[in-house]
Structures
1.
Amino acid sequence: EVQLVESGGDLVQPGRSLRLSCAASGFTFDNYAMHWVRQAPGKGLEWVSGISWNSANIGYADSVKGRFTISRDNAKNSLYLQMNSLRTEDTALYYCVKGVSGSYFSWFDPWGQGSLVTVSS
Amino acid sequence: QSVVTQPPSVSGAPGQRVTISCTGSSSNIGAGYDVHWYQQIPGTAPKLLIYGNSNRPSGVPDRFSGSKSGTSASLAITGLQAEDEADYYCQSYDSSLSGWVFGGGTKLTVL
């Protein structure tokens, strides 16, 4: 069974940094693209960033470009999101999501349960 | 403001049929990128419902169907059941943004 377990969410002040992790199991991690998708309280889904199986293709939403960095460690079956210069509008539940192939352009399935990031002074 | 537009809400009585539209543009749906649909029951993570415009993953009832035409797509749900009450999101890739986009989401209420 595929499992995606996010961690690292916390309450942080604006301007600070935070690193999210996603531990993957139940599938061959280095065969699949991975993504981060967030959902602000009471709002819809927003794609944040994605990375192909070999890290050759990486993309970011305009709202986080230059502040967030996605990475993966295939030896550790782990996905990361380094978030710098956090803003109050970054407050959201961050989901770790698996692509259905190694391509960055494949759809998403399944989703983790999410890690809550709250940015507030 | 999402570049892909969905109605904020739809409703229907048990047993009825409802449709949810997803309207994009020439840089996403109209450019030929596939549309995928996700169901999010309140308090839970989203779940893949339809992929590649009209394909159902195993385990998804055939009451759910998807279609795409031009710059739009739609999700149809027939034989509405109380358990279908959820938020539904469409998704596509946008070449202008060089990234994935979601519709704003549609809340389905079963009356």
Note: The mean pLDDT of chain B is 97.
2.
Amino acid sequence: DADVTQTPRNRITKTGKRIMLECSQTKGHDRMYWYRQDPGLGLRLIYYSFDVKDINKGEISDGYSVSRQAQAKFSLSLESAIPNQTALYFCATSRSGAAGYTFGSGTRLTVV
Amino acid sequence: AQSVTQPDIHITVSEGASLELRCNYSYGATPYLFWYVQSPGQGLQLLLKYFSGDTLVQGIKGFEAEFKRSQSSFNLRKPSVHWSDAAEYFCAVGGASGGYNKLIFGAGTRLAVHP
């Protein structure tokens, strides 16, 4: 099994729909992150969490929310999807800042 | 503010040729620096990292990178490229107050390898 599992792998949804992207990790790390990847822009941080009681906004949190259900689970929600949220979404986990991240395989989301 | 610049969007090299991917960063203190590789349809894999000590760091798959504080650079190199190295490469810097708690990524460099 992968260290970081993201579901679904691909999703097409309609404008205005609520959608949840899920992430689970088996690394036993406290820190988890959600990034968004767009061509030419690299990865941008949406939200991050250092433990189950700690949630922080990243640089592009508007239109998104998260839930840290357990140490191993960190979900990202789009409350009302819009087409410019079409992107590749990555979840990651880390033990510390110096250790680097372990990434999931990504969720490709298309909003039509 | 912290930032990472990868000046080259696309690079094409011949198989067996040497490779250098450029990365420049802006950060107020000694940064933690990383290179990741993303193969098509895959997540990002850590190639190497630097946070202290020897400024030349070795990574996986035959890659190395050199930290040059005076140039605010952390360029990735490989002496002989293989076709399987075709991928997108991301430089990242650890930053923000309170510690190196989250990474800032560059826009990426897409590498194509000609046979």
Note: Chain A has a mean pLDDT of 94.
